[in-house]
Design goal:
Blueprint (H helix, E strand, L loop, with lengths): L3 E2 L2 E9 L3 E8 L4 E8 L2 H4 L1 H15 L9 E7 L2 E7 L3 E3 H5 L6 H20 L12 E4 L4 E3 L9 H10 L7 H4 L4 H4 L6 H17 L9 H10 L5 H4 L6 H9 L11 H12 L23 H10 L12
Helix pairs in contact: 4-8, 4-12, 9-13, 11-12
Length: 318
């Protein structure tokens, strides 16, 4: 007999995300598939952290949008906490990209849909602050789902990012490469921080490369803070030049230089998506003048990283 949590019958283990183990389950009352996240660690053992998580989850529970994975239920059972989410069936965005550029129109469509979901969340006062390809699932119908909205501050991934930004964890560069400059510096964040992270993903969809990720955590942080990316049209000839201005605005180092809202970014992204579809996506062209930051590390990383502090649920086992 399968184990159960309240009315949810637990099936197979999907993996381990930032808050704990995740299982595919079935709602025996409504007959639908769900994803059950069993929260573990200090988040449930520490009373203040647990209360903060429950409060954040309740804010998320009020959100309903086609591209946001809905939180159905919050179950507190003694010392255990389980979060029951809509089951997002599909593949992680990082696998969709797979190290190669997507069709530019398709990339703009996906990014505009994610921006629409963020706009809904931001209007409700919910930020993501850990947007990266592992927190987006692309359904079989090609629609994105945003995972773990509003829960980044309680995940182990968040703690790892903070430590890595301080030079403590050199293996966390993949996550660090999607954070905003203000997150890296421990400054105040708002919805524009999510726009920066979304811009990093959009750039990766257009070129097949994450623009700020380097071989070491310190070099990645320095790149986030100081590197101005090569326009995507120069790295991939299939990308129209109109895309460059949108990318530049999403990836502005200062908050004031970015789109003022996710809704404004979504509007421009939809305009890009309405362009005549490209029929072929050439391989990205290596840019010999692309900025390099590895030489900066000995001189800059101590100063830049010393003051730097940073802030998927489900399917991130791969």
């Amino acid at each position: 007999m399968s184990p159960t949590v309240a009315q949810y019958e637990i099936a197979d283990r999907l993996g381990e995300g930032g808050l704990g183990e995740v299982f595919r389950g079935r709602d025996t009352r409504l007959g639908r598939s769900v994803a059950v996240k069993r929260v573990s660690g200090t988040v449930v053992s520490d009373a203040a952290a647990r209360a903060g998580l429950i409060a954040a989850a309740r804010r998320l529970q009020g959100l309903s949008h086609p591209v946001i994975a809905e939180l159905y239920d919050i179950i507190e059972d003694g010392d255990a906490v389980s979060l029951v989410f809509e089951y997002a069936d599909g593949e992680i965005l990082s696998r969709t990209i797979g190290g190669r550029p997507l069709n530019p129109r398709r990339a703009a469509e996906l990014t505009s849909q994610i921006a629409d979901g963020l706009a809904e969340a931001h209007a409700a006062g919910v930020l993501h602050l850990d947007l990266r390809p592992e927190t987006i699932v692309v359904s079989r119908r090609g629609r994105p789902k945003i995972l773990d909205l509003g829960l980044a501050g309680f995940s182990r991934a968040s703690a790892l990012r903070r430590r890595a930004a301080q030079g403590d964890l050199p293996d966390s560069r993949a996550s660090l490469g999607y954070m905003s400059p203000e997150q890296a510096l421990g400054e105040e964040e708002d919805g524009r921080s999510d726009i920066f992270s979304l811009g990093v993903m959009f750039y990766e969809m257009l070129t097949g490369e994450a623009p700020f990720s380097r071989h070491e955590a310190g070099a990645t942080v320095v790149s986030v803070l100081h590197t101005t990316v090569t326009p995507p049209s120069e790295r991939n000839p299939a990308v129209p030049r109109e895309f460059d201005a949108v990318i530049a605005r999403m990836l502005a180092k200062s908050l004031d230089g970015r789109y003022g809202s996710a809704a404004a970014a979504a509007a421009d992204l939809r305009t890009l998506a309405e362009r005549k579809e490209q029929t072929e996506v050439p391989a990205p062209v290596a840019d010999p003048e692309a900025p390099r930051t590895s030489w900066l590390v000995p001189a800059v990383v101590a100063a830049a990283v010393a003051g730097a502090v940073a802030a998927w649920w489900m399917l991130a086992a791969g």
